[in-house]
Amino acid sequence: MSAPLAAPLDAPVAARPLPARTFWRRALRHRSFVVGGVLSLLVLASALSSLVWTPWSPYEIDIAAKLKPPSAAHWLGTDSFGRDIVSLLLAGARSTILVGIIAVSIGLTFGVCLGLIASARRGWTEEIIMRFSDFTFAFPAVLSAIMLAAVVGPGMVTSIVAIGIFQIPTLTRLTRGSANAIWAREFVLAARVAGKGSFRITIEHVLPNILSILIVQATIQFALAILAEAALSYLGLGTQPPQPSWGRMLNDAQTLLFQSPMLAVYPGAAIAIAVLGLNLLGDGLRDLLDPRLARER
Amino acid sequence: MMSNPATTPLIEVENLAVRLNTSRGPAQAVRGVSFSLKRGETLGLVGESGCGKSVTALSLMGLLPDSAVVSGSIRLDGSELVGLSDADYCRLRGNRISMIFQEPMTALNPMHTIGHQVAEPLRRHKKYAAAQARKEAIALLDRVGLPDAAKRIDAYPHQFSGGQRQRITIAMALACEPDLLIADEPTTALDVTIQGQILDLIADLVEERGMSMILISHDLGVIAENVQRMMVMYGGTVVESGPTDEVFRRMGHPYTQGLFRARPRLGARKGTRLKTISGTVPELADLPAGCAFGDRCPLVEDRCRAALPPMIEVGPGHDVRCLRTDVSMADHVGALSA
Amino acid sequence: MSVFVLRRLLTLLATLIGASLIIFLVLDALPGNAAQMLMGADASPDAVRALTVKLGLDQPLAIRYLQWIKGLLSGDLGNSYVYGTPVAGLIAERLVLTIPLAIMSMLITVVLALSAGIYTAANHNKLGDVGVMSLTQVGLALPNFWFAILLILLFSVRLQWLSAGGFAGWDDGAWPGIKSLLLPAISLAVVQAAILARVTRSAVLEVLREDFVRTARAKGLGKREVLWSHVLRNAMIPVMTVMGLQFANLLAGTIVIENVFYLPGLGRLIFQSIANRDLIVVRNCVMLLAAMVVIVNFVVDVLYAFIDPRIKVHDL
C-alpha cells in the first residue's frame, strides 16, 4: 500500500501540449516511458486476452492435478485445486484492471470536480473542500474497506468504493493546486476582463491546461489502486472466489509455503510488474508532457 | 615562502578559460581573461548578464559546478589556485577570499540565527570558541551598521529587511579580514535608496581594512564611483580594461560606448529616446567566430569576424580588444563629450 | 507560537469530531440493526428485540452517538457484543503488539530512507544514485504483504532463522518480542522507505540549489559540512510532511501485515470482529486508528514550528 504522495501538492503549470508526432518521436527514445509502456501493455493484453482465451479454465477444479510442477501442459504448474496458474494469472489481471479503472474513475470524477470548484470559488467553499479532503486522508483504503465490509459485506464493489474514496483527496489537492496556478495567469485575467464566468473559464482555460498533470497523476493513482486492490483481495475484503484475483492467489499460496513456495512468487510478481509498469509510464509521461514537472524525481 | 607583498600582486589571473555544461550544450563562458590586482586595489567588472563576469568571480572562489572545466592560471600571493583540492580551497574561502552575493533575501539560511551564520567563518578559520565568536559577531554587525546588533543577534534572517540582510552578509564576508573581497552585484536587488548606503559601507570597509576588491556590476555609474580600475566583459572575453578615469574619458570599444549611451539619465530632455544596442547578447553556447560583438557592432568589418581581435593599448594601462579603434575613438565618446 | 498551536488544535478537534461522525453513521446507522446482524437473519423477532433493548440500540441515533463520545472521553468504550468483556481492555491487549510494530517499522523506514535519500542526493547522477534510485523504483512496486511472504520464504522456510509468524509476547523480556516483530516491521518499512527516500532525495537536491548553500561554501565550509549543517534542516520540512502522511498507510499496513504473520494485534482484532459482527469493537478500533493518524499529523504540524523559525511569525 503506497502513500498518496506521488502528487506534488502545488504542481506547476503544464506546458503547451506537444504536437503528436514530436511527442511520439521523443517518447520512443525515453527509456522509462518505453519500459513502462511495454509492461503496462503486457498486463492490459493479458486481461483482454483472458476474456476470450486462457490455456485452461480458471474456474475448473481438478483435484487430481493439484500442485503440479511446471510442465508443457501447465507452464507454471497448478494450485491446490488443480487450477492452471497461467490461466489464473491472466484472469486475475482482468479483476485488477477492472477494479483499478473504476476506482480511479471515481477518484478522478470527484477529485477533479471538487478541486476545480475549490479553485474557482475560493473562500469558504475552498476551505470546506480542503478540510474535508484533509480528513479523508485519515482513512486509507484498507480502513474504509473494513468499515464497508463490516456493513455491506466484502466483495468487488466494496473494494472499488473504498479505493475510489481513498483516491479522492489526493486528486482534489492536486487539481486545486494546479488550477490555482492557472487562475493566477494573465490569460485567465484577460478572460475575466472579457466578462467570462468562472464556469466557462474553468472549462475553456483551466481544465485544458492541467490535463497533462492529471493524466500523469491518473497513471500513478492506477498503480496505487492496483496495490490496494491486491491488499484487499488478499485480506478477503475484495474480489471474492471463484473470481480469480492476484491477492486471493497469494492468500491461498501462503498456506502452502513449505510445499509449493513458487505459488507465492508468481502472483506477487504479476502485481509488481503491473505497478512498476504504470509507475515508469507515469514518470515517462511526466518528463514528456512537461519537462518542468520532471525535475529530480 | 611568502613573496614580497609590495612587488607581487595579490591576485594574478592569466589566460583564464571556463567551459560550462549548459542545458544547450557546452559553453565557453570565459576565455582569455587576464588581470592582476595589487593589495588594496579595487577592480570593477562590467557587462550585461551572461557576459562571464560572475563566472570569472566564481572561478576565483573555486565555486564553479563540478562539471565546469577551468584552464589558465589564478595565483593568490604567487600560489596557484587552479586545480587546488576542495579541502585546500575551503581554507581560503571566507578566510583570505570572501564574496558577497546579489540576493540578500536568499543568501542567508532561514533556519539559522544571523549570529550563528556570522560566527561560522570565525569558528571555522580562526577556531574561536562559541562565546568569543559571538562577541566578535556582535562587533562585526555593529560595524556594518545593523541597529541593535547585540539584541538582534539571535534573530532569524526573515526578521530583517533586504538592506539589513545585505549588511549581515557583508559582516559575514568580512569576519576573517580577507585580503580580497568579491562583491557580485551587491546592490542590484535592493531599493534604490538603500543602494548608495551599502556601496558606501563597502567602500569604507575596503579602505579601512586595506582589502582588495573586485566589484561586479552591470551599472556603469556604480563602477565609475567605486573602483580604481575596470574591465568591460562581453561574450566571455574582456573587451576593454584600464584605469576607471581613463576608460570613462576615452572609451575605446564600441560595446563600452554602447553601454554608456544606453544608460538612462536624469535631466534628459523629454522625448529624447533612450539609445539601445541593437541585436541581442549572443548565446555562450554558439558564439560567432572572431569578435563576439561583431553581430551588433556598427563598425564591423570582415576582418573583425576572421579571428578574435587582440588587446591593443590605446593609453596608459588602457587596452581595447578592437581593430577599429581608429574610428571608434576618433569622435571621443566618453563622459567628457556626453 | 501559541496562537499557531491553538489554531491547529481547533482543526484537530474538528477533524476528530468529523471522523467520529462518519464512523458512527457508516457503522451504526446504515446497517439498520446491529442486533439483527449479530443473531442472523433467521432469529426470532422477539429475541432480536430483546437484544436490541439489552444493547441499548433502541435509543435514538443522536443519543447513542453522544453516549459513545461520552464513553470515549471517559475511557469506557462499552462491552463487546460477542465476548461481553470491555472493548477498552480488548484493544489495550492488542496495542502492546501493534504500537511497537508501528514504531519499529517507522524507525527502520526513517533510517533506510534518510540514508538512501541523502546518499543519492550527495552523489547526484553518479552510479550510486542511479542504482539506489532504481532499487526504490522496484520498492515502490512491491505490495508489502508479498514482500512479507518473500521474507518468510527466505528467512523462515529456507534459512529457518526466524519463525514464520506468531508473537512471542513481552513476558520473557524484550528480545523474543522484538524478534517476532522483526520481519513484519521490515516488510512494512521497505516499501514506505522507497517512497520516503525519493522524497528526501528531491528535497535535499532542491535545497542544494539554494543561494545560501553557495554562501555557506563561500565561507569555507566543505561540501559535507554544508550538507549536514545547512541543507538537511531545510530539507526536513517536506520529508516530515510525507512521514506524517505515511503514518496513515503504516497503520493500514499493520492491519495487512498482522494478517500475513498471524500476529494478534489490532488488525487481527478488527478482522475477527468483522467476522463476528461485533460492530462496537470495529467502530472503536477504526476510531482509534483514525485518531492516531490525525494526531500524528497534528504533531508533525506543530514540530514544523520548532524546526522552521519562519512559521511562528507568518502563520499566525
Task: Write the topology of this structure.
The complex is a heterotrimer of chains A (297), B (338) and C (316).
Chain A: H1 20-27, H2 31-52, H3 85-121, H4 123-136, H5 141-152, H6 156-183, H7 186-193, H8 198-235, H9 246-254, H10 266-289, H11 291-294
Helix pairs in contact in A: 2-3, 2-10, 3-4, 3-6, 3-8, 4-6, 5-6, 6-8, 7-8, 8-9, 8-10, 9-10
Chain B: E1 11-22, E2 25-37, E3 42-46, H1 53-61, E4 69-76, E5 79-80, H2 86-92, E6 97-100, H3 104-107, H4 114-125, H5 130-143, H6 149-152, H7 162-174, E7 180-184, H8 192-209, E8 212-217, H9 220-226, E9 229-234, E10 237-243, H10 244-249, H11 254-262, H12 302-306, E11 312-315, E12 318-320, H13 325-328
Parallel strand pairs in B: 3-8, 3-9, 6-7, 7-8
Antiparallel strand pairs in B: 1-2, 1-4, 4-5, 9-10, 10-12, 11-12
Chain C: H1 2-29, H2 34-39, H3 45-54, H4 61-74, H5 87-122, H6 127-141, H7 144-158, H8 174-208, H9 211-218, H10 223-260, H11 266-276, H12 279-307, H13 309-314
User: SSE order of chain C in H/E notation?
Assistant: HHHHHHHHHHHHH
Low-confidence stretches of chain C: none
The largest sheet of chain C, given as strand count, sense and whether it forms a barrel, is:
none
Radius of gyration of chain A: 22 Å
For CATH, the homologous superfamily of the largest domain in chain C is named as MetI-like
Q: CA-to-CA gap between the ends of chain C?
A: 8 Å
Please tell me the total number of domains of chain C: 2
Number of helices in the DSSP assignment of chain C: 13
CATH architecture tag of chain A = Orthogonal Bundle
Number of strands of chain A: 0
CATH architecture of the largest domain in chain C: Orthogonal Bundle
Provide mean pLDDT of chain A, rounded: 80
| SS-derived structural category of chain A | mainly alpha
User: Terminal Cα separation of chain A, in Å?
Assistant: 20 Å
The SSE order of chain A reads HHHHHHHHHHH
Q: Given this structure, which CATH class of the largest domain in chain C is correct? A: Mainly Alpha
**Radius of gyration of chain C, CA atoms, in whole angstroms:** 24 Å
Main location (chain A): membrane
Subcellular location (chain A): Cell membrane
Family (chain A): Belongs to the binding-protein-dependent transport system permease family.
Membrane topology (chain A): Multi-pass membrane protein
